[in-house]
């Protein structure tokens, strides 16, 4: 499983294998998102402090 923030640039490549690729898209919205939406454009971890701590510690 890969979890990415919506601001991470990404793309999908062509699946050239015989194994089907399965994807599921989920959106998780912070309870205060309407108030934080603009601020998250300059600080993508603002709504996900626990994930930011994991990334900073190199344990993600």
Percent helix: 25-40%
Our measurement of the CA-to-CA distance between the termini, rounded to an integer number of angstroms, reads: 12 Å
- Beta-strand fraction estimate: under 5%
Number of helices: 2
The description of the largest β-sheet is: none
Q: Tell me the series of helices and strands, N- to C-terminal.
A: HH
Low-confidence stretches: none
Helix-and-strand structural type: mainly alpha
Tally of strands: 0
Mean pLDDT: 80
Shape: elongated
Q: Radius of gyration from the CA trace?
A: 15 Å
Structure write-up:
By secondary structure, this protein is mostly helical. 28% of the residues lie in helices and 0% in strands. The protein is built from 2 helices and no strands. It has helices at residues 33-40, 49-57. It is elongated, with a radius of gyration of 15 Å. The protein starts with 32 loop residues before the first helix and ends with a helix.
Summarize the model shown:
The protein has 60 residues and is mainly α. The chain has a domain of 29 residues.
Keywords:
mainly alpha, 60 residues
SSE order and pairing:
Blueprint: H1 33-40, H2 49-57
